[in-house]
Amino acid sequence: MFAGTRKMGREKGYTLVELIVVMAIFAAVAMAISVTFNNLISRGSQQARSAVSQIGGITGLEMLRSDIAHAGFALPWSYQATPGWSEVAVPPVAGLGIDPTTFNETSPPRAVRAANVNPIGSPPGPYYLVLKSALLALNSPSIGHWSFVNYSSGNKSYLRTSGDAASDIVPTQDNLITLNVSFDNQGNETRKLLMNSPSQFSYTVTGATNPIIVPNAWAQPADPSQSALAYAISDTTLQMPYNRADYYIDFNAQRPQSCSQGTGVLFKAVAGQLGTYKDANGTPLIYPLLNCVGDMQVVFILDRNNDGQLSAYPPEDAYITGLTADLLREQLRQVKVYILAHEGGKDTSFSYPGASILVGEAGVGGQNWSAAQMSSSSKFGATWRNYRWKVYALTVNMLNIQK
């Protein structure tokens, strides 16, 4: 042989067994990468759904917090004549398990009311929460407008303006009520709704916005010792001298597919000035606030003796239901709302760690959901642990209840 010539047939290639082993290794690595990638995608999707839930919860519950804080604002404490109105005649939707007309009041209204939808059920139902004030409508450009009414003899009182469009009365638009502020011989303040008749307690004004807007003669202070405050309640004709909003869970409402069975949607329904939860055009005034909600519990915190000693009561307590509007105004210090919901959707890689979930406060009407109750087929089902349940707790100081 010539130098440098290689001999043929002496070198070995890969055997079939070696190729099969290599291919198996590659397949195992690819499978591992695929599983990891799928887990990352699933986890990312779950985190995205959780983020959406958190944003929705923050937005909706902040509205609830604000409404509770403003409950009682510009409510009449007494009436000049026996009123002839009613608040609502029909529920916002059917199938809520409670009659909202039971919260109607013709006596001076209580700022906050609540009742359990199914108090004798097992487990008991969630609460239905009703708030009343001048600031609860969402679709009216009149909300937040108000003015002082000065005393002047000879029907020369007027509504003062400040030049602030956010607060000044708007002629021909705003339907107003006027509260006469005075004190009795014992120095107790009263805020009486000025009325021309049992059915006439509101009015609109005309004229220039500056410098003088004259209210109706019957809506002016009667003597120099009195002062009056005019509030815009709505841009539509008033049926009642305040606004009302109902908060409830609708378990029959359409909800995202990611929600657990047995959950519903938390809604705010504004009682329009027509006896319904609709505006003058027939559009429902019902707004979804939070999805995947399983329960809502309410607790009232009172200072019964004005001595700083606070006591907690469920809304159905006989002491609470027996309070008049003035006593509730004097004693109510806080309203606490607890809402059970879950973040994101079902996650089979997650297992809720707790044996039970307490919604509210033990011994004060709170609901302690046991694992058996959670897993009931009529409630959240056997897979309830695969959801990230959370209890939102709102504690709201009633700072505006006397204003």
Describe this structure in words.
This protein has a domain at 51-139 and 240-397. The strands form 3 sheets. Strands 2, 3, 8, 9, 10, 11, 12 and 15 form an 8-stranded antiparallel sheet that branches. It has a 5-stranded mixed sheet with strand order 1-6-5-7-4, with no helix packed on it. A two-stranded antiparallel sheet has the order 13-14. It contains 4 helices and 15 strands. The N and C termini lie far apart (114 Å). It has 403 residues and is an alpha+beta fold. β13 (356-359) and β14 (367-370) form a beta hairpin.
- Could you say which structural class the secondary elements and strand pairing correspond to? alpha+beta
Number of helices: 4
Characterize the biggest β-sheet: 8 strands, antiparallel
The rounded Rg comes to 31 Å
Unreliably modeled segments: 44-55
Helix content: 10-25%
Pick out its properties:
403 residues, alpha+beta, 5-stranded mixed beta sheet, 17% helix
Give a short synopsis of this structure.
The protein is α+β, with helices and mostly antiparallel strands.
Topology diagram in text:
Layout: H1 16-69, E1 78-79, E2 112-116, E3 127-133, E4 146-149, E5 175-183, E6 189-193, E7 227-234, E8 243-250, E9 264-271, E10 286-302, E11 311-313, H2 318-321, H3 325-331, E12 332-343, E13 356-359, E14 367-370, H4 371-374, E15 388-397
Parallel strand pairs: 1-6
Antiparallel strand pairs: 2-3, 3-8, 4-7, 5-6, 5-7, 8-9, 9-10, 10-11, 10-12, 12-15, 13-14
